[in-house]
Amino acid sequence: MGERWRAVGVLVVALFAVNVVARLVIRFGFDGDDTAEARVSLGMFVAIGLILAGVAFAWGRQRPVARWAGEVATAIGIALGLTVLIGPLVIGNNPFAGGSATFFAQIALYLVATTAGVFLGYLVLTALGRDYRSRSLKRYAETSAAKPRRIVRR
Predict the structure, then answer these.
(1) Nearest-5° angle of CA 7, CA 24, CA 86?
(2) Cα separation, 151 vs 154, whole angstroms
(3) pLDDT at 147
(4) Nearest residue to 53 via CA among 135, 116, 133
(5) At residue 89, does pLDDT exceed 80?
(6) Is the confidence at residue 122, as pLDDT, over 90?
(7) Higher pLDDT pick, 29 / 44
(8) What is the number of other CB atoms lying within 10 angstroms of the CB of residue 4?
(9) Is residue 53 a contact partner of residue 121, using CB atoms and an 8 Å limit?
(10) What confidence score (pLDDT) does residue 81 get?
């Protein structure tokens, strides 16, 4: 059980670290340049989506969706809370300084990026036929086809 939550914790730290790095790059490299800030933010969301696509691809091979989906959702929820509430404090801003519209837009963008990343990773995995369910069905088909037909005598 500890291994399971350790992986979730590592994922939370990775997602939050991407956000902190993006905030620091914006703060020290592009402070005041709105176009550059938007590009760095877009890059951050793409990086978060790609991380989650990789996680969905890796975890989807080993376990059924019902087991890893809850773990990924938990990691996304915790990372979202850290990103929205703690992330601005790291660079010296108030989380609510931009107003409620900015606050909720940040939440919505984060959820869109993470959801798209997870779906992308799992769809690629399923399209390749390497997900847990496809492999289980393939094994079942191979074992049922390998058994000789039982002859019934009357």
Answers:
(1) 55
(2) 10
(3) 65
(4) 116
(5) yes
(6) yes
(7) 44
(8) 11
(9) yes
(10) 95
